[in-house]
Every structure is written in C-alpha cells, then in structure tokens.
Prior knowledge:
It is built from twelve helices and 28 strands. Helices cover 26% and strands 27% of the residues. The termini are far apart. It is of the alpha/beta class. The protein has three domains: 2-107 and 244-307, FAD/NAD(P)-binding domain; 127-241, FAD/NAD(P)-binding domain; 320-485, FAD/NAD-linked reductase, C-terminal dimerisation domain (Enolase-like, domain 1). Strand 2 (29-35), helix 2 and strand 3 (70-74) form a beta-alpha-beta unit.
Amino acid sequence: MTRLVVVGNGMVGSRFTSELLTLDTRDRFEIDQFGAEDCRPYNRVLLSEVVSGARDVASIGLPQSDHPRLRVHQGVQVVAIDRADRAVVRSDGARTRYDLLVLATGAAARVPLLAGLDPNDPLPHGVAALRTIGDARAIAAATLNARSAVVLGAGVLGLEVACGLVRREVRTTIVHPKATLMERHLDVTAAQVVQTALQTLGVDQRTEVAATGIHLQHGRLAAVQLSSGEQLPCDLLVLTVGTVAATTLADACGLPVERGVVVDATLASPADRRVYAIGDCAQPPDGMSGLVAQGWNQARALAARLAGVSDPVPPKGDDIVRLKAPGLDVVTMGVCGTARGHDPGRRSIRVNDPHIGRHVEIVIADDRLAGATCVGAGRLAADLLATYTARTPVPRDPLTLLLDRSAFGVPEPGADERVVCRCNGVTLGDLKDCLANGAADVAAIAAATRAGTGCGGCRDELCALALSPEPLAATSESVLTRAKHG
Length: 486
C-alpha cells in the first residue's frame, strides 16, 4: 500500500483525490487529506455570488469522496514538512508519514501596501478580502450596515464583487490603477463598453489611479486615499488585487519556489520526486493561469499518472472566463486582452455597439477560432464557446460566425455530443444517461457527473433538464424555452 498525503482540501485537492480513487482500481493508495478550513470543500469560484445574495453558502458545496481508503482531516493545519523522515507535521505536533506527497495549498488573497494597513496584522474593521467562505459571509454581513463601499481592483473578481454590492444596494466605487478594466481579458474598446454598462448599473469607477492609504476612525474604516489626492469616504473596502501562492510549507522544507512551487511537466518537484504540487500553489512549465480549470486538469493528469493509466488530452477551455456579475454579461476565451500583441498570422472581426452595450470580437488563426471577446452577446457567446472548445474549422468567411448559427460546424442543439458543462466536459449525452439512471434533481446530477460545480454557467440548463417531463427526448434549447416561459 502506498501512503499518500494531500495537503489541501479545496477545489483542486478534493478533485484530485476523487479522480485518483476512481482510477486506482488496484487499491494501491491509502490517502490522508488535510484541509485547514473546518468544512467540506466548496466552489470558491462562486463566492462572489454569495456576496451578491444570488446563492447561499449551502448551494456552493462540492461533493467529498467517502471512500474507505481516504481519511479527510478538516480544520487541521499542516505546519511543516520533514522530507528526511517523509512526514508532515500538524499544528498539534502529530506527524503523518507519506510515501508520496501532493501539495494543493492554493493561494491567499494579496494584501496591498497601503498607508494605515499592515499586511502582517489582521485587517481592520471594514476592510475585507474575498478568498474563503468566511470572507464571503463577513462581506455579506457588512452590507447590512454599509452605506458605501470601495472595491480595489477591476479584474474578474473585482467586477463581480462590485456588481454584487450594488445588488445589495450599497453605493460602490471601483478603484483600478490601469486605464483598462479587466485588462488581462479585455482590450480598450471592449472595456469601454463594460465601463458604460457598469455606470448604468450604478457602479462608479476611478481608473488610472491607485489607492495609497486608508483612514480609520475609532478602529473602523472611514475613507480610502487615492493617488490623485481624492479621498473616498466608505464603510467597506474589499481587496480584489490578486492572490499569492501558498508556498510557505514548500519553501521551509527546501523545495524550489518562485511565484509558486516549481514543478516539471509531471507536476513533481525537481528537488524531490516524491513531492508534487497542483493548483494555485504550483508553478508548472506552462505558467500559472489562476483559473480553476488549469488546476482541475492538473488534478486529473496527476491522478492518471499515479494510477498508471493513460490521460486523455483535456478539451480546450482552461482559458475561458465567464463573468458572474448581476447585470453584466462578459465572456472571453483564448486570445484577448490588452497584452495579446500583434501576430500577422491572426485576423480579427469586431462588432462594437456601445449604445446597446454590445461588443464582440473573434480572432482567427490557422482556420480555427483562436479567441473571442463577448460583452452583452448572450447566446452568441455560448455558440462561440462551442466552436472554440471543439476546435472546429471556421467558415471561409468568418463573419458568418456572427450572423448564422448554422455556420458554426457544431452539433445541433440536443445532439448528445454537445458539451453542456464546459468546466467538467459533461455532454448532453452524459446528462441523459444520468437522468435515465435515476437522478431526480440538480444535486444528484452534480454528484454523478460534476456538472454545474465549476463556474455555474450551466446551472439554468441543468435545472431545466431536471424539471423537464421528457428529459431524454427534449433538446436543451426547447427545455430552456419552457423553463423561461413557464
């Protein structure tokens, strides 16, 4: 029996153990899994929806394997790794030995250097980050008394939080040091459409200006100081300025660490082939995306490698971003953003209509869709996602992608091969089989297939399929029509 220790029980760590126990048909592994949080794994991607009130905490839980060869230690902190003895040390001094060790420690919210804010001290009253389920609860509770809020950072999470706070009727201002909102995913033109949409929703914005400090009164947040000299009075400041990989354990035991725990293409540390790292804490050769799809791909690949089975090439889609913000529809994939540079081998087609809040750009390379940006595009974004992830050839005139759905070269709605949950690669055929085998609701579908446990973008379709009186015969399009119109 191989003793495997997994440090981390979040979205990636729990997925890894589930994958491994499924593939380990020879019963080779006995697993101890440690999670610092005293709760079952949950979908961190949906925390902004808890802040907005669109979801409750119970609805973002993830399934945890109850396999007899898995022991999960919730709320147990691993404080050290003894590589010489091949053991992890817990906060109470107890040791757990391993033959193989997997680090899935994730990342922590980055706390910026601001006057009046010490990154080494607890955050003062009224200042919060959003990384854990406790953070989401605290921010939601703070909105009950907050009159105004500042969100620091205008990446994906920043926009989601800002829209969520406005949904809770808190006057909100975004502060962002760059000229372009979501600059990793939007170019200037697309960002301008998003800015207008945010203004319509009631979200104020300060771009090309940085926060330099905070002002406290009687230990409570009173205002945020900006580099422009402006002072923004507020009761709540939410920090959404990125994350820092949790590498303390790896660094302390002598493993190579840069931005994350350095691993090779096999996800093993070059300094110790018994130690692996996956998810937000890992720095693989192809870089760190910060997207959960990359971590899930790593979890699947490492589980297959340890189980000694072949790992199928994952479907393209670990670079897809779907904004989960009330009233704001943004989807990006592949080549996008301000830093994409010029490539003579790529061509693009753009439709921009700020008046109705729409911006669509498709990028073509080698007769394939290399990327797309969709703001306010609704169904078109879903069709472009299908083309992008399936890697189907585009029409000779790519403009038809924006005009005629029949040009997409993807299965018609209802075809079993159509992917419904892109985060987990679940097709309509998989869902049909699941329903035929007795799944009666979305929770049962999620437990059996993992559909709906990623970004949440397919939950409406899953609900419609589960409620349909004829789920095996209905197409997703007709089911959704019935769901929307009663």
